[in-house]
Amino acid sequence: MVLTINGKRREVYVSAEISLLNVLRDELGLTGTKYGCGEGACGACTVHIDGKPVHSCITSAGSSVGKAVVTIEGLEKNGVLHPVQEAFLQSDPLQCSYCASGMVMSAISLLNQNSSPSDAEIVAAMNGNICRCGTYPNIIKTIKLAANLLNNK
Amino acid sequence: MMESKDMEMPFEMDRRKFFRLFGGGLAVVFVFQDVLAFAEGTEAGLVGPVPADQVGAWIHIAEDGTINVFTGKVEVGQNIRTSLSQQVAEELHVPMSSVKMIMGDTDLVPADFGTVGSRSTPQMGTQLRKAAATARQALLEMAAGLWGVDVSSLKTDAGAVSDPQSGKKMSYGQLTKGRQILMPVSEQVAFINAADWKVAGKTMPKVNGRSFITGEHKYVSDMVLPGMLYARVLRPPAYGARLVNADLSAAKSIPGAVVLQEGNFIGVAAPTLETADKAIAAVKPNWETSKQPSGAELFDYLVRNTTNQNKEKAADGLQAIDGAEMKLDATYTVDYIAHVPLEPRAALAQWNDGKLTVWTGTQRPFGVQDHLAAEFNISKEKVRVIVPDTGSGYGGKHSAEAASEAARLARASGKPVKLVWTRKEEFTWAYFRPAGVIKVSSAFNKNGEIKAWRFDNYNSGNAGLDTQYRIARKEIAYHPSRTPLKQGSYRGLASTANVFARESHIADMARMTGMDQLVYRLKNLDDPRLKAVLEAAAKSFGWNSGKRMEGRGYGIACGFEKGGYVATCAEVAIGADRSVEIVRLTAAFECGAIVNPHHLENQILGAIVQGLGGALFERIDFEEGKILNASLSAYRVPRFKDVPGIDIVMINRVDLPSAGAGEAPIVGVAPAIRNAILEASGIGLKTLPLLPSGKLA
Ligand code: FES
Ligand code: FES
Questions:
Q1: Band of the pLDDT at B10, cuts 50, 70, 90?
Q2: Helix orientation angle between B597-616 and A136-151, rounded to the nearest 10 degrees
Q3: Per residue in A119-130, pLDDT tens?
Q4: DSSP classification of residue A19
Q5: A147 touches A153 (CB < 8 A)
Q6: Model pTM?
Q7: Distance (Å, rounded) from C-alpha A72 to C-alpha A51?
Q8: Residue among B362, B390, B640, B666 with most chain A CBs within 10 A, to mutate
């Protein structure tokens, strides 16, 4: 099947029901997207499909055909980080950072819909993303910084 | 200072081999305290021949000026890659960017007992500072010798030695060029006071931070080798199940699948994960299960099955209890909880000419090396364990399961094999924080004075067992039990349980005497560091200011662990439906001189948030040896919504050595919340988790 990942046409030979997460990681080497639970409960595997955040672990590869898939690897443009990545870099909120790519992808979706979210809106939008290292308050600050960076661009 | 002839010490670790591996230059090696103490009597106080396995770490200044620091510690999110670099950069007077940390690779770094018990900062940090200071002193002396001037007239800055008088300047790399100098750490060397730190003591960004934000960093679970196979392992249906036999024929007929049975172990490896999943599902095993305990009987079981003799003595009681005005007996229970590292156990194993290399996320690379050497009956030199920066551990990744399983399958298939545990496997077959039963009896007077204290802990462990309060007579015992589930280390070890029981009990005693929880503690404490954190937390929290709002309560608790002192205050609100909301938490923490304020704050925050889960709702449910909630949808961990306002007060004691911070801040959370519920409702809860349903009964 043919998938569109980060703006590129990628041909993979897998069965349609295999998860998008597996295809990204094992077939295409895009390992920035992480496995954390395999059941849509942790957000580590979040990618964008046609601009919407989805859990790639419970999304079949087949259902992604013909849609635009964006992963963490697709954010950087000509060596310039996405402003949300830049905010994560500047405010350095994380510990082990295993949750980072899911957090960044979810935060981008949130900010696409709401350019100046309140704390409560951030909490509601991000609640599906687990950071087991417990850095949530830092991530909230980081998303606010990201909102500033985006709004002042 | 030592002359150059002294520098060339007869280390058993082969000097030539060292420089062949790492290139020429200057290397400073340090060894653990006890070895130094042993060597004290030798010539000039210098280290004699030191067995290579007792060398603690080394710093190597390469000919190009790169500062390579070799340590067996690993990075699991505590950001020691950054904080240790800061300390080296500080002492050596080099920019952070020229320090390279080589961590957790058993072929390259000296043996280490593991990244456990918050020892990295107090031990590794201090020793690396000494090593760096020794190196700087040696570089100064080399330049002084070269230029024929006095050492004291020279300066070091930005990786170079200069002579302000003559204007001469040489970089560290130029100075060490063509040399092969190996020297021990000087115990006498002066290092920079924390009060004068310029690089250490400051907030510095995570050194390799960018690679995590772009997804570029390769955790073990992300790694790939040419020809690599993906593995799955057959798991028993319950604890204690025995494999009678298995029909492997269907699995073996799947093209590409390698199927291995060795005793109770059955695993498969295949070119894709999908094929591996199919193959493992095709295995037809026959299991024989045996009777196993269930969660419902856990606490009785632990008390009944103690494995030591202290149990008999427990009946004696405390004589002094009779002489006191008040008495309180209570039993506290603590459930099993899981670490749930977001990256599950993972290993990539490869055999090459009888040598095994395993990349795996572990807090104990040398422990895993020992395990693998023993399991495969090969010498340790034939096992290399490499730990890339890992998706956390919290004390939960000390063991070698995934490494051993991947290595077996790699040997059987003759190819590199990667095994990433599923979340279910991580929940079921890793190990848990021990469950425990803690019985406390105390006798005290109305004026608050504590006469007697008896504290019996069944199964949780020793850490934090003793009490910090002034008590005339105490009897404290730990009774190990037969554990129904596999248990092991956890953040703060048994302190999470012991401090919960102790601080809950103290709050109940204070209440019985009509005294304020804080006043009662201060009255019965002597340790100034503990009192200081209590006072700091209370002040920032506003403990004494005014009346509580209707339905609200305040609670406080304190403890210390591994050189870190913590006091936590909590405010809770109880709703009309008996639901409990954690309104806010304040923690005051002191662990000596602060190395990196931002990363310290992160560590404290992380410990508090993790502590919230264990305090409120985390619990492993099991029945007949089966884990019933082995998934992230069934086992609740703290999420964004669960986090109250958190206020952190850090006390910087630049006059005290830096200690680790990964553990102590967790211990105050549960008892502070519990004691706040006590104040708000009069209910003194005695179980961890406190509120699995979110409501008071
Ligand atoms: S791995 Fe997809 S949500 Fe957890
Ligand atoms: S930083 Fe470790 S899971 Fe978020």
A1: very low
A2: 120
A3: 999 999 999 999
A4: B
A5: no
A6: 0.91
A7: 13
A8: B640
Whether residues A17 and A69 share a domain: the answer is yes
CB-side neighbour CA atoms (13 Å) of A71 = 25
Give domain B15-214's CATH architecture.
Answer: 2-Layer Sandwich (3.30)
Chain B residues inside the 8 Å CB shell of A142: none
Q: Which of A74, A97, A118 is the last residue of a domain?
A: A74
Does A45 share its domain with A107? no
Q: Which of A74, A96, A123 marks a domain boundary?
A: A74
Of the listed ranges B119-128, B228-237, B525-534, B612-621, the one predicted with least confidence: B119-128
DSSP class of residue B434 equals: P
Burial B671-685 (b: 16+ CB within 10 A, else e): bbbbbbbbbbbeebb
Mean pLDDT, chain B, whole residue set:
88
Q: Report which secondary-structure segment, H or E, holds B138.
A: helix B126-147
If one counts every other C-beta atom within 10 angstroms of the C-beta of residue A116, the result is 11
pLDDT at B546: 67
Q: Using CB atoms, which residue from B423, B603, B641 is nearest to A127?
A: B641
The model's pLDDT over B408-425, given as tens digits with 9 standing for 90+, comes to 999 999 999 999 999 999
Residue in B392, B598, B608 closest to A96 by CB: B392
SS3 for B613? helix
CATH 3.90.226.10 is right for the domain spanning B220-289+340-425: no
Task: Look at the block and give the residue holding tokens 């295409």.
Answer: A28
Beta bridge partners of B435: none
CATH number for position A58: 3.10.20.30
Fold of B436-482+491-688: Aldehyde Oxidoreductase; domain 4 (3.30.365)
Q: In this structure, are strands B265-270 and B229-233 parallel, antiparallel, or unpaired?
A: antiparallel
Mean pLDDT of B376-380: 96
Measure the CA–CA gap between B97 and B572, rounded to whole angstroms. 46
- Which residue has 């156990």 as its token pair? B345
Q: What pLDDT is stored for residue B189 in this prediction? A: 82
A95 lines ligand 2 (CB under 6 A): yes
Tell me what pLDDT residue B279 has: 98
Tell me which amino acid residue B440 is.
V
| Residue ranges covered by each domain of chain B | 15-214, 220-289+340-425, 436-482+491-688
Residue tagged 């924080």 (tokens): B433
Measured between alpha carbons, how far is A120 from A32 in angstroms, rounded to an integer?
28
User: The tokens of A9 are what?
Assistant: 């046409």
Among A78, A89, A73, CA closest to A33 = A73
List the domain range (segments joined by +) for residue A106: 83-151
Q: Does residue B621 sit in helix, strand or coil? A: coil
Helix (H, G, I), strand (E, B) or coil at A89: helix
Q: Is A133 in the pocket of ligand 2 (CB under 6 A)?
A: yes
Q: Is the CB of A24 under 6 A from ligand 1?
A: no
For residue B467, is pLDDT > 50? yes
Q: How far apart are CA B272 and CA B251, in angstroms?
A: 14
Which pLDDT value is given to residue B116? 55
What's the confidence (pLDDT) of residue B6?
32
**Percentage of chain B modeled with pLDDT above 70:** 89
Question: Would you say residue A21 has pLDDT above 60?
Answer: yes
**Edge-to-edge strands of the sheet including B355-360?**
B258-262, B265-270, B229-233, B417-420, B346-352, B355-360, B383-386
Q: What is the pLDDT of residue B657?
A: 83
**Which chain A residues touch B389 with a CB distance below 8 Å?**
96
Q: What is the dihedral of CA A107, A110, A114, A115, to 10 degrees?
A: 20
Residue B386, strand partner residues: B105, B359
Q: Is the peptide bond before B689 cis (omega within 30 degrees of 0)?
A: yes
pLDDT tops 50 at residue A86: yes
Q: Integer distance in angstroms from the first to the last C-alpha of chain B?
A: 69
What is the reported pLDDT for B120? 58
Task: Please state the atom number of ligand 2 nearest to the C-alpha of residue A132.
Answer: 3
Domain count, chain A: 2
